[in-house]
Amino acid sequence: MNSIKERDRKNVHAGKAAGVAGTGEHRAHGDGAMTGQLPVPHVKELPGGVTAPKGFRAAGIHCGVKQSKKDLCLVVSDAPASAAVVLTTNRVQAAPVLVTREQMQRSRIFRAIVVNSGNANACTGERGMNDARAMVGATASALNVGPDQVLVSSTGVIGQFLPIGRITEGIKKAAAVLSSEGGRSAAEAIITTDTFVKEYALEFDCDGVRVTMGGMAKGSGMIAPNMATMLAFVTTDASVSPAVLGSALSRAAGRSFNRISVDGDTSTNDMVAVLANGRSGAGSLTEAGGPRYEAFYAALEQMLVTLSKLIVKDGEGATKFIEINVTGARDEEEAVKAARAIANSNLVKTAIHGEDANWGRILAAVGYSGIEFDPSKVEIYFGSVPILRRNYTIDFSEEEAKKVLGRKEITITVSLHEGEGSASFWTCDLSKEYVAINANYRT
Amino acid sequence: MNSIKERDRKNVHAGKAAGVAGTGEHRAHGDGAMTGQLPVPHVKELPGGVTAPKGFRAAGIHCGVKQSKKDLCLVVSDAPASAAVVLTTNRVQAAPVLVTREQMQRSRIFRAIVVNSGNANACTGERGMNDARAMVGATASALNVGPDQVLVSSTGVIGQFLPIGRITEGIKKAAAVLSSEGGRSAAEAIITTDTFVKEYALEFDCDGVRVTMGGMAKGSGMIAPNMATMLAFVTTDASVSPAVLGSALSRAAGRSFNRISVDGDTSTNDMVAVLANGRSGAGSLTEAGGPRYEAFYAALEQMLVTLSKLIVKDGEGATKFIEINVTGARDEEEAVKAARAIANSNLVKTAIHGEDANWGRILAAVGYSGIEFDPSKVEIYFGSVPILRRNYTIDFSEEEAKKVLGRKEITITVSLHEGEGSASFWTCDLSKEYVAINANYRT
Question: Phi and psi dihedrals of B106, rounded to 5?
Fold first, then answer.
């Protein structure tokens, strides 16, 4: 079985991701909606992750939740930072999700995020809530900040109590080794079944001042629209008011984490958090509009889309990365619905895995997506090869189709010819390895 | 890899299916909703299928759509029969579905159903419509009945034109060999990737008169709520007005074919049709109510639930049959939503495949199903073994859980403790074989 994983970072850094920010609103800059190739101006990719921006330190250590791998991390801002958070929509919410929501109701200015992996602290009742609060308290003590300035997150097995003593001891140790070089360690400490570490950084120009943004993510399995078992933490030295940061995050998450699917499930612990500490010295963003805001928003969307794609590429057992572009829908919402139905179809995902140009399954998925369209007007492309033309005209070379489907990255474009709505969605194929990994996760 | 398939018919005939009609409305008779064990009174299972009732003949032959297997069947009533039909809700509808809808708009009294397998006649435009009408015409000629008295159905590959000459020739041949023993042949001629033939028959008492009902089905893969690639044809010698037959079919399909899932996709060709020719001599049903109607409805629901379960058991690559019972929901609709989310979760299905008591994935699926509930009140049972108790109390023997999960038929019960709503849903596990079968279906 080949793997796409080794190639991921390279492809992303080669600018493949950048164009995705060209969908939707950004189509004004050119096209890009179908091909995802248009780079957003002024954004430059950097090595590193959450400690790339000025004024952030981090650490990742082993404290004893997992047997030997890193399982605890701290991300700390040297200055009070505006915070914005998106949390899982699952009705079953883990204790750290509930505690983070409480924290965000008290304040929008934070100094630190503490995360453990290996244990989700979910379905753990009152004791779980106390444990999550203890993580906040221990972090606040170790950093000498207020307990209302710490966000908390967990990922791992559901229904087991945290080894809270080991974790609070670990927090002291992690605080002692915080470093502006610690981003990679932190990214290593948040992963579970992931097969590679996910981080990304970029810089952009804000009125002549260089602003930096860094991020890390945890994915693999249970990734779906509405934020399945997925964590992402983003830092930036931009100066952004909490309200503006919140609206930018909400919009960008809708076009990134809510447009990826590995297996259609959502989970109890999902969280995306952004901290903005203003240390770049760039002017403050206090309104959601204007060229400076748009530059910031484009950078944030590029960051979240890139992290989202890395998560899809690490989908359990994935051997192919699939980009689905729906164009010509009556509006963007219908385009998203159609793209999501295709992305979540096991039959489409297994056909792609088998490199079979089964356009009938794609059309059938659009058919049950709930949108309005005339099937006889639909056109389907694999890469640039037209597979289905209007009036059900099928006239493609199996050889050419096989060539496209033999690649590790496949673009499927569905043109509905009903209107101007378009959307991109990212998913992976469904392999026997997915079944093998998930059949025995818990035991 | 073990297979459950050989055991299916025996289990069904041993009365396992009967109790399912005890859910919902039928709870008034006792409980049965959770265990599915309550038999419906007065219903007796019989051998055979669509030719078990009086006045029906059938034939199944090879005409040349497939390479060598049977691919064409006729089911004929010797007397004009009331008809009721349920068709796919997919926006992409095959030509035979569109033609059958036209036919049903003209009349509710029919004499025959013609079905081919191997080619779905879907996405074939005007030529496909003409081909479906030609099937109707050829059948009417061969049987010497009006062209408004024939229903048509197809299943198989999408996007290819029918070899209509071979099919119309085949229709003549099939008409020449119609027989009251032909039910099995007919059932053989409608299957595609199915690994076993699906038929079922029963009789029940109607005011001292014996009424018989027979059915056959085609499934395997792409089965989901709202009727995926799935065909079912039911005959009965009951006397039922078209309107009453329509309302009984609509209700029973909602509790059978719309409560099964193999992979969550729906297709272009699904159809359930019932013909009732009155040849039993029992009094006519012209109102949807009263004990005679309830006896007929119970028999029809048992027929459709049994055929539905046979389809699930033949799910592609399935090694385990899973019954999901949700109880204590706020109403039946919410119970169905929760049960469907569990049944469609790849993570739940792979965990069951791996015999892993991963209750967290079940709870998470209920969490994103969109229903209202308090997670801390939820209880989950595997068979009769409590796995999760209220307040997230987990106190089960892995050994006992393994024993239940090692079986070929597994019942999962989720008690929400929010109200009186309950529902059953049937699905199968997700295996590596599913991926293997679906990765190379078309080529």
Answer: -85, -35
CA dist B200 and B180 (Å) reads 15
Two tokens at A248?
A: 């930018």
Express each pLDDT in A64-113 by its tens digit.
999 999 999 999 999 999 999 999 888 889 999 999 999 999 999 999 99
Q: Phi and psi for B202 in degrees, rounded to 5?
A: -155, 165
| d(C-alpha A131, C-alpha A152), whole Å | 11
| Within a domain: B278 | yes
Among residues A272, A296, A313, which one ends one of the domains?
A313
Residue B344 and residue B205 in one domain = no
Nearest CA among A222, A2, A198, A167 for reference residue B358? A222
Inter-chain touch A440–B157, beta carbons under 8 Å: no
Residue among A90, A127, A368 with most chain B CBs within 10 A, to mutate:
A368
Question: Number of folded domains in chain B?
Answer: 2
Give the DSSP per-residue string, A398-433: HHHHHHHHTSSEEEEEEE--SSSEEEEEEEE---HH
Tell me: the pLDDT tens digits for A170-226?
999 999 999 999 999 999 999 987 889 999 999 999 888 999 999 999 986 543 333
Q: Note whether A50 and A164 are same-domain residues.
A: yes
Question: pLDDT digit string (tens) for A340-369?
Answer: 999 988 888 888 888 888 888 899 899 989
Residue whose pair of structure tokens reads 């005209």 in the numeric block: A393
Between helix B242-254 and helix B290-313 the angle, nearest 10°, is 40
A174 lies in the same domain as A88: yes
List the structure tokens of B18: 């009967």
Residue B163 Cα distances to B74, B131, B135, B184, B231, angstroms: 17, 9, 11, 25, 21
Confirm if A263 and A427 have CB atoms less than 8 A apart: no
Query: Closest partner residue to B123 among A89, A123, A392, by Cβ?
Result: A392
Tell me, yes or no, whether A327 and A248 share the same domain: no
Out of B100, B124, B139, B229, pick the active-site residue.
B229
Here the tokens at position B215 are 């059915």
Are both A107 and A185 inside the same structural domain? Answer: yes
Same domain, A190 and A260: yes
Co-location of B249 and B332 in the same domain: no
Compare CB distances from B443 to A159, A356, A376 and report the shortest one's residue: A356
Residue corresponding to tokens 């992996």: A117
**Which of A122, A265, A360 comes nearest B159 by C-beta?**
A360
CA B19/CA B48 separation, integer angstroms: 21
* H-run or E-run covering A298: helix A290-313
Of the candidates A313, A330, A358, which is a domain's last residue? A313
Q: What is the mean pLDDT of residues B205-232?
A: 76
The boundaries of the domain holding residue A46 are 5-313
Distance CA A364, CA A267 (A): 28
Which chain A residues touch B354 with a CB distance below 8 Å?
438-441, 443
CATH code: domain of residue B403 = 3.10.20.340
SS3 at position A384: coil
Distance CA(B100)–CA(A278), nearest Å, equals: 67
Q: How far apart are CA B117 and CA B193, in angstroms?
A: 10
Helical packing angle, A125-143 and A164-176, nearest 10°: 20
Q: How far is B443 from chain A (nearest CA, A)?
A: 7
Q: Which helix (H) or strand (E) holds A327?
A: strand A321-329
Q: Name the one residue in this structure whose structure tokens are 């396992």.
A: B16
Q: Assess B358–A contact: CB distance below 8 Å, yes or no.
A: yes
Query: Of all residues in chain B, what percent carry a pLDDT higher than 90?
Result: 65
At residue A271, does pLDDT exceed 70? yes
How far apart are the C-alpha atoms of A25 and B245, rounded to whole Å? Answer: 52
- Nearest residue of B to residue A352, measured between CA atoms: B439
- The predicted pLDDT at position B347 comes to 80
Tokens for A186? 């932190």
Q: Are residues B355 and B281 in the same domain?
A: no
